Amino acid sequence: MTARLKAAAVSFLNARPLWAGLERSERIELVLAEPSRCAQLLEAGEVDMALVSVGALPGVDCEIVPGIAIGADGPVQTVVLAGEQSPAIWDEVFLDTASRTSHVLTKLVLDDMGVHPKFTLLPAEDGLARAKGTKGALVIGDRGFGVRANHVIDLGREWTRMTGLPMIFALWAARPGRVTPEDVQELTRAAQHGLGIRTELAQAFAREKGGDAEKYRRYLTQRIRYGLGPYELQGLEAFLERAAAKGFLPPMKLRFVDDVVKSHRTRRRVSLDTALQKGAEGERLDADEAELLDEKAPLLELGLAADLRRRALHPEGVVTYIVSRNVNYTNVCTTACHFCAFYRPRGHAEAYVLGREELTQKIDETVALGGIEVLLQGGLHPDLGIEWYEDLFRWMKSRWPQVNLHALSPEEIWHIARTSQLELGATIDRLVAAGLDSIPGGGAEVLDDEVRRRIAPLKCSTDEWLEVMRAAHRKGLKSTATLMFGVGEEPRHRVAHLTRLRELQDETRGFTAFICWPFQSAHTRLEASDTSAHAYLRTNALSRLVLDNVPNLQASWVTMGGGVAQASLHMGSNDFGSVMIEENVVSAAGTTFQMDSEEVERHIRDAGFRAARRNMRYQLVGGAAA
Amino acid sequence: MPLSPLANRALERDGLGPIRDKVLAGERLSDAEAVRLLETADLAAVGALANHVREKRHGDLTFYNRNVHLNPTNVCVANCKFCSFARPDDKHASEGYTMSLDEAVGKVVSKRPLGITEVHIVSGLHPDLPFEYYTELLSRIRKAWPELYIKAFTAIEIHFFAEKFGKSYEQVLRELRAAGMDTMPGGGAEIFHPRVRRKICDEKATADQWIEIHRTAHRLGMKTNSTMLYGHIERLEERVDHMRRLRELQDETGGFQVFIPLAFHPEHNMIGKAFPKPTGYDALRTLAVARLYLDNFDHVKAYWVSLGERLAQTSLAFGVDDVDGTVLEERIYHMAGASTPQALSEKTLHELIRAAGRIPAERDSLYHVLKVHDGRPQAAAESRVSA
Question: Burial, A482: exposed, middle or buried (Cβ in 10 Å; 0-12, 13-18, 19+)?
Fold first, then answer.
């Protein structure tokens, strides 16, 4: 193994979740330093990467580590202006010496207010003591918590008010060429770990420096945001642009670590007709052909080709569905994905973990409605170890042995392995021994790390997602696979997703079905790209063509409505998913289609097919097709 | 422009080769062939054929307008079993209403800053309002906003006026036209076949009366629209019978601009208890077959208020070239349980059309293109609005 890389970071409370997980890293050695020193160490080449203040970026030749940052979307509490009088009359402001970003932010905010005082550098205590009359002071870092003054202006809040965007204060910057995708993964894992133990970090900080642990916990979980997605990038770019426009910082162009490792495949010339013909015949499409179809093929051409595949795979004219209930055991989650409207941080007023009584009621209802499966999924709750899941599964299996336990997406299985410090294989073995029957394909989103780092920086990587599925399939479990499109990905990303699934399916034959749906953007922080019905039908038909080894395709009537789902039955789908007894995640983002089994069957029949109930393995149950 | 190999292959597999050949040769489909297409459970193949006709007529252009709805009263003496909008009177029940002329005119004129080009006026059959209420309504809107197109009064209302005020259809139409009416909406057609009509709207104008009124309007030089309310008790043959009567009148007059199949909405009315809302599949096949059967109609419209944005967008690949408009203030479908938005912005309509790979084209009430939104600068077409 090569020598460990060196990383410099500040000891501030808000930085701790990003480096706490590095303390035992074998790849990266941690050096703690004052904020202004971090950038100097990086510039001097004494460290390979550093957690640097955004304002220091223009002076340093560096690449940014994608996905992770320290920021706030609104009040931040630890970057404030304080004074005896209103800032409107300030003629001098004392700037805390610690951070350049805050200096620039101070100038931008005061400029926006039409206030143009003189700026003087002074240590924070001195500045605050002298902030009387027409003088104000900038106070940053953990000192900001305790500031008492007549006028306290939270600069995070002011920035968001001015721009409608989040403020990014610091991020990991690396010396050019020094950091590999594996190192980025290590930093991401460290952040995942650190975010999971924010409560403990807050308690440790309170013991070390005094103060209220609960206040620190709220600060870490509710004020500070650690993702660097498209929304945060907009905030970062707005800050650098405004600062450059006012001459507060030199202009700069952001460069990311993965910009250098990104490979640009040159596409072979293929004809649309040939690709369609190949797809229709069930010949394997390569990535070039699939991309061409994704970009250029008209809806009905894709649909007609996919319909031929559906007819070949399912000539009997039957469309299946299952009676299953989606139970979300907790909404507490540490990944804070930009596309999710469902999660709540631990300690939030709306956070929940379902108890046995509620579960009993839900499962009894399901069985009474003819349900044969429970789809059990939840957030990544930092307190739930494998024993909690084992107890739950054993209890469910003893009370309802006939109900298929379709549970835990790959992300959750990784989370359980991490929190319980187990190997992946051992984790799956224990869950299966406790009653796990099959695994849902959720959390796949787009299986391409370029996209994942942007939309779900703290989620598992493509390889990790596939690794769980591979391990589970090898142990004889079946699973489904999903794709959530419309998150700003490009055709090549969707095609990469489909071909990665196809490769694993060649290896294991463990996927029973595939389902795609568009990103639902209401109440989330991510802007959707094309999520229209037209895009859905095209993506679904393309999936039928590319996934030549996955037997079943589910129509997503939950997100698209019954009519569009019916149309998809004539363009590739052969299954109508599940009757909806309960669903929380998609409906939290605005979709509300509902159907009982009668309505599901009416839609199937009306579209010209016979309806039949199935189980998770797509075996027909309960007699002949109606 | 040939059909694609995949479309040909599917149509031949389904035994639709002869129908395809007629369509490609520009020959007219028989009623039996239309029923056959409706019964063929191959949406992609039938859709591909309808799309071929649509693209031959309009290319990628997809029409919409900027319109506002005005329903001056929901008080109605008819007792149609599919209606959720009508109320028996406005005297006691809280839900019956009749707008004063000031109120009605004010509602329309207040939309002037929004760039609206058309008002669509449809009402209940009010037992007490005088004829002058209607002429006055038209003339006051016309005076206040001369360039606005007024599309007003279904054939059912025209028939009601004729009976109630002792005038001929022609007299009624001439007087309303003189007061400011430009075109007529296609509502009230429901299903023409007497078996169905007797059961769902016995008290309404008959099919022959509906046809006669549109014939008269066409003869007077007016353009009108046509509709079909499907998805309740009618048989597929009765849908085709309905379209045949429209096609025949169109051969005679050429006065229809567009055909609009309307999905029956089941909530809060008397049929709905027995019949669920027709599925989206039914909407798509009906639109596609209408495009193929109605060979003398320029346009087939998907009314997004009824279908929802997703199905309306999908229908653009199944023969449809018009998605109605921004539709401010729609009430009739929403009282029947439509969960679609109350109005769509022009931007949303553009996005919906563009995401389907089509080109948005704003039209006026007479289907003059006002602006093709293809990103290229252009001169506005001749029309009252741009004048």
Answer: buried
- DSSP, collapsed to helix, strand or coil, labels residue A113 as coil
Closest CA to A199 of A73, A74, A351, A78: A351
Q: What single DSSP character describes residue A446?
A: S
Element spanning A463, H or E: helix A462-474
Mean pLDDT across chain B, nearest whole number?
90
**Burial of residue A401 (number of CB atoms within 10 Å: 0-12, 13-18, 19+):** exposed
Query: Is residue A265 within 8 angstroms of chain B, CB to CB?
Result: no
DSSP string, A99-140: -HHHHHHHHHHHHHTT---EEEE--HHHHHHT--TTEEEEEE
Report the distance separating Cα A116 and Cα A113, nearest Å.
9
Residue A590 has pLDDT above 60, yes or no: no
Give me the amino acid identity at A599: E
B4: closest chain A residue by CA: A301
Beta strands per DSSP E along B264-344: 299-300, 322-325
pLDDT digits over B16-44, tens only?
A: 999 999 999 999 999 999 999 999 999 99
The predicted pLDDT at position A337 comes to: 73
Residues of chain B contacting A601 with CB distance shorter than 8 Å: none
Summarize pLDDT for A300-312 with one digit per residue, the tens: 999 999 999 999 9
Tell me: pLDDT of B275 over 50: yes
- Across the interface, of A564, A570, A603, the residue whose CB is closest to B42 is A570
Residue A171 backbone phi and psi in degrees, to 5: -155, 170
State whether residue A257 is helix, strand or coil: helix
A and B: number of Cβ contacts within 8 A:
113
> Is ipTM > 0.85 here?
yes
The enclosing H or E element of A213 equals helix A213-218
Angle at A383 between CA A76 and CA A190, to 5 degrees: 60
